[in-house]
Amino acid sequence: MKYFLLICAAVLIVSCISYPDHSNINIQTIEDLTIENIETAMDSEDIGLVLEYISTLERTGNQEDKNQLDNLLSNASLLVNKLFSRAIEKKLFFEASRIYIIAREAGLVLPKEWTHNKLILAYVYKEEENISSSLRSYLIRNFLDLDLIENDDIINLFDIVADGGDKSLIKQFLQEADQRSLELNTDVITNYEDISKIDLLKGTVTIWVNRGMKIEGGIGVPDSVIGSGFFIDKTGYLLTNYHVIESEVDPEFEGFSRLYVRLWDDQNTKIPAKVVGWDRVFDIALLKVELVPEVIFSFSNGKEYLPGTPIIAIGSPGGLENTITSGIVSATGRKFLQMGSVIQVDVPINHGNSGGPLIDEEGELVGVVFAGIEQFEGINFAIPGSYLAKLIPSLYKGGRVDHPFLGLAVHEESQGLRIIYRTPGGGGSRTGLENGDIITKVMDIDVHKIEDVNKIFLGLEPGMIIQMDWLRDGIEMNGIFSLGIRPDFPLYDASKIDLEINLIPPVFGMEINSISESIFGSEYMVTEVFPGSIADITGLSINDPFSIKKWEIIDDQKLIIMQIKIKKRKAGFLESGVQLGAYMGTSNFI
């Protein structure tokens, strides 16, 4: 009887390590891929998946499958041309440009009279009231190669750019015209130069979100959020941080929420505003008010802001409107975002500055203020304008901005990006990529850093495809991958469908092997520690044996806590308890 009770106790101990319930989840793997999957995707006109499946079966399928692929690829080419012609017929030129990129990556042929530049030009020239000159300017900036533009189009586009007020783009067109000896109508330029810092105040607003009342200590007090914002379009569009207006669009928020802005010269009048588009990953939101601003801001183009560069912040710290503070860029490349790095600035910034503009000495946008470390004076952060300028066309479309996702966690190495985790059912997993594969190229661009991939993904959307090259045991491989939708917290979603031990490499930054399993629990050995990771900072090293005693996910804070018993080699293999904690907003997923 005692023996039986001991076994029961051991089972209970082991059961403290939980396992996700997969019973209601359909997770596709490469073993599930058949010709029927391709035909089903073809019927639903999901061209991205069609091309991914064909590419995967070409690489991994049996001979019987491969015999059918030529015919399927021919059908895929017909489908791409059908989708492209339909988009052109409906004058959905931007959608057609996405299909053009898909066809180019897959090596499929579209009508020769169209190029990517011509498709973007057709969209820019499209006569629609909801396409403002400022939006057209961002499309020109992000998607057009001016070297490939005819002289007549340079002249015509300049009128649009001048009306849109994008200073850096105006400069670019003036330089291009000078090289081609073209005469541009410079009379249409307004507010191009000589805008003082005081004038720029006219383009800023205080964001005010009224959330009714909240109870503190049994007393009702006003619940409001104050932030800053600035106009980027003379038709009334402005930018601020997502976290400032989150209650307006968060489906989980229950309660009253009303959004207003106050102009720089009238703090008593509340002007209703609406949220047009938002991006949680980059903490940015596009708002709209029904007025014509006196001044609009424009992003710099191609400038490099090195540490020591003078900068100025404008905002409403603590609700004090029209506050201008100055300082310098302290550092760049701080990994505070899931899809990129941020600028660290030494500028006086406080609550209420969030969403305000950060500008250089020429008045061009360096970035958008979004965070600070309260306990340390002068350590604040801004989202780089180079990211935001690329995001703006997506924000204008309205609603939530979705980013592409492969479902892979990677570690930066000299050869490329080593895969350390594959999200079950994600693009990398269902196409047969393996842990240890080293990604070397994406869309024929060499990638050595995670940010290299993120920059490519900023110009793409879910549903599009990429060509990717990788090494497996020194052998070069290539394939097509359909991009999914990036979750707000990839690790959090993965934790719901995967085993905890599989999550340890992307969460804590170490590779492990199982060395023993019994009813009393499992023992593991550390086989690699990634430099700078949580495991590295905690002092773990190769050949340290350990067992997991507790694994906890704190949902509201998006944290993973792991408690282990470990015999550290550096401590003479004396057994000790260690707790490791990690935020699930990690930046190593692509």
Can you describe what's shown?
- The protein is an alpha+beta fold and 590 residues long.
- It contains 17 helices and 27 strands.
- It has an 8-stranded mixed β-sheet with strand order 5-4-1-2-3-7-6-14, sandwiched between helices. A 6-stranded antiparallel β-barrel has the order 8-9-10-13-12-11. Strands 16, 17, 18, 19, 20 and 21 form a 6-stranded antiparallel β-sheet that branches.
- Helix 3 (47-60) runs antiparallel to helix 4 and helix 5 (93-106) runs antiparallel to helix 6.
- The radius of gyration is 27 Å and the shape is globular.
Describe what is shown at a glance:
This protein is of the alpha+beta class. Helix 5 (93-106) packs antiparallel against helix 6 and helix 7 (133-143) packs across helix 8 (151-164). The chain is globular.
List keywords for this structure.
590 residues, alpha+beta, Pdz3 Domain, Thrombin, subunit H, 4 domains, eight-stranded mixed beta sheet, 17 helices
Approximate helicity band: 25-40%
How does the overall form come out from the CA principal axes?
A: globular
Return residue spans where pLDDT drops below 50 for at least 5 consecutive residues: 1-17
CATH-assigned fold name of the largest domain: Thrombin, subunit H
Mind sketching the topology for me?
Blueprint: H1 2-14, H2 35-43, H3 47-60, H4 63-89, H5 93-106, H6 116-125, H7 133-143, H8 151-164, H9 167-180, H10 197-200, E1 204-216, E2 219-233, E3 237-240, H11 242-249, E4 258-263, E5 266-272, E6 274-279, E7 284-288, E8 310-315, E9 323-337, E10 340-346, E11 357-359, E12 365-372, E13 380-384, H12 385-396, E14 399-400, E15 404-405, E16 408-412, E17 417-422, H13 427-430, E18 438-442, E19 445-446, H14 450-457, E20 465-472, E21 475-482, E22 484-485, H15 490-495, H16 500-508, E23 510-518, E24 521-529, H17 534-538, E25 545-554, E26 559-567, E27 575-583
Parallel strand pairs: 6-14
Antiparallel strand pairs: 1-2, 1-4, 2-3, 3-7, 4-5, 6-7, 8-9, 8-11, 9-10, 10-13, 11-12, 12-13, 15-22, 16-17, 17-18, 18-19, 18-20, 20-21, 23-24, 24-25, 25-26, 26-27
Helix pairs in contact: 2-3, 2-4, 3-4, 4-5, 5-6, 6-7, 7-8, 7-12, 8-9
